[in-house]
């Protein structure tokens, strides 16, 4: 067990994202006896304990037993949770929040003075160890706290340090990002069916095309425009498709959609205050 894995981590509110954290840590070799989960419903807690072999405790007991608290509840539930947890959180205990839209200041003013808080925006590809997690330090979090958070998230994919002022943009672009790709794949699958392909054939073609395109973007270092132009022959099929996308303002719709997601993240923060 390395030094980081000697820390006990409690995931408070182990829904989809919290479960992704637990399963990723276990796949990376984190000892199950160093992981704690909490769940609102008893049957959900039983499911987590059976599936992962972790302890499932009430929120306050988990907060007292762990070295690091990972807050993974819905943003609208965070205020009530902090009222419950604050008396059980000793000063100096690291709190890592995955609550979309909520700034570190939200937690700092509800927890004991000088509590170190690190804000994280991750995404659901953590379930397959391909997450992108952006982390930002609160006013009391040190470089050591950031390093511990990175070590905890590294088994789930890539990590990136950013100023907290950029986190709402990260939420809109990367946190919600997988949903945009699933939406596109859904539409392309329907197009394949319209053109006469069986659903599974259309799905397999699109998924492999998406995977190959992502690897090329990552590994070649080429700008996406250059990669797109390499597929776009003069007078060919691809440019005909691109013309239709442009005529339907797909690029503008993407810009508007991601800006709307950013604005919603800000609204969630304002409502929680």
UniProtKB/TrEMBL annotation:
Catalyzed reaction equations: L-proline + NADP(+) = (S)-1-pyrroline-5-carboxylate + NADPH + 2 H(+); L-proline + NAD(+) = (S)-1-pyrroline-5-carboxylate + NADH + 2 H(+)
Gene Ontology terms for molecular function: pyrroline-5-carboxylate reductase activity
Residues annotated as domain Pyrroline-5-carboxylate reductase catalytic N-terminal: 8-101
Gene3D superfamilies, sorted: NAD(P)-binding Rossmann-like Domain, ProC C-terminal domain-like
SUPFAM superfamilies linked to this entry: 6-phosphogluconate dehydrogenase C-terminal domain-like (SSF48179), NAD(P)-binding Rossmann-fold domains (SSF51735)
One term under GO cellular component: cytoplasm
Binding-site residues, NADP(+): 12-17, 72-75
Enzyme Commission code(s) on record: 1.5.1.2
Cleaved signal peptide residues: none
Pathway where it operates: Amino-acid biosynthesis; L-proline biosynthesis; L-proline from L-glutamate 5-semialdehyde: step 1/1
Residue span(s) of domain Pyrroline-5-carboxylate reductase dimerisation: 164-268
Binding, NADPH: 59
Record's keyword terms, sorted: Amino-acid biosynthesis, Cytoplasm, NADP, Oxidoreductase, Proline biosynthesis
A biological process from GO: L-proline biosynthetic process
Entry keyword annotation includes Oxidoreductase: yes
Broadest EC class assigned to this enzyme: oxidoreductase
Subcellular location(s) per record: Cytoplasm
InterPro entries: 6-PGluconate_DH-like_C_sf (IPR008927), NAD(P)-bd_dom_sf (IPR036291), P5C_Rdtase_cat_N (IPR028939), P5CR-like_CS (IPR053790), P5CR_dimer (IPR029036), Pyrroline-COOH_reductase (IPR000304)
NCBIfam families tied to this protein: proC
Family listed: Belongs to the pyrroline-5-carboxylate reductase family.
Purpose: Catalyzes the reduction of 1-pyrroline-5-carboxylate (PCA) to L-proline.
Name of protein: Pyrroline-5-carboxylate reductase
UniProt organism field: Actinopolymorpha rutila
Gene designation per UniProt: proC
